[in-house]
Amino acid sequence: MTESATPDDSPRPDRPLTIVIAADTFAPDVNGAARFAERLAAGLAGRGHDVHVLTPSITHRNHGVFREVIEGQEITVHRPPGWRWYPHDWLRFVLPWMAKHYSRKLLDEVPADVVHSQSHIVLGRALTRIARRRGIPVVATNHVMAENIIDFTTLPPLLDKYVVKLAWADAKRTFDMSRAVTTPTRKAAEFLENTIDIHGVIPISCGIDKRNYTADLSPRPHSRVLFVGRLTTEKHVEVTLHAVAKLAPELPEISFDVVGGGDQRRNLEQTAQRLGIADRVRFHGRVEEDELRAAYTKADVFAIASIAELQSIATMEAMASGLPVVAADAVALPHLVHDGVNGYLFEPGNADDLADKLRRVLTASQEEYSRMQQASLEGVDIHDIENTLDTFEKLYRGEPL
Question: Where does the record place the Glycosyltransferase subfamily 4-like N-terminal domain (predicted)?
Answer without folding.
Answer: 30-209
